[in-house]
Amino acid sequence: VAGSGMGIPSMGIYSHELYNEYDVDTIIRVGTAGAYVKEAKVGDIVLALGACSNSNYASQFNLRGTYSAIATYDLIEKGVEVAKENNFDYHVGNVFSSDIFYDNDPDYWKRWAELGVLAVEMESYGLYINAAKLNKKAMTVLSISDSFVTKESTSSETRQTGFTKMMKLALEVASRL
Predict the structure, then answer these.
(1) In the annotation, is 99 catalytic?
(2) What average pLDDT score do residues 105-118 get?
């Protein structure tokens, strides 16, 4: 268990070092996210199959296009199995890894939601790119802490103590590796 800091740059450093310096093969990230779609309710779990971003993290590879950062499928598959076994409310799909927490445009999220992006967080894009580059495995498990759609949000106490489902799911997936 290790902290990654906040944002793609921090995740980029930590995941790179874990994969390279400590010979870690698999990283399962847990964290919170804000829902962009009404189906993802506060307390639900999101398994981030892919990560969109406004970050320039992938520019370091001088690609002639936009890189689609994705999770390792067998981890997602195990995550779905665990969610079903435990009757967790869950969603699998794309998330938005943003470099901006307080966006100047209050409606920016709607454009991502129109493309089916489930939620926003700040790290998965960097994690998934590093995993792909280094031929390692990665998955992100998120708890919905608030909703852009309904404006519902959790208390700070719930954020500290109430997101045990995502941790249980991540630990159960890790035990099956």
Answers:
(1) no
(2) 96
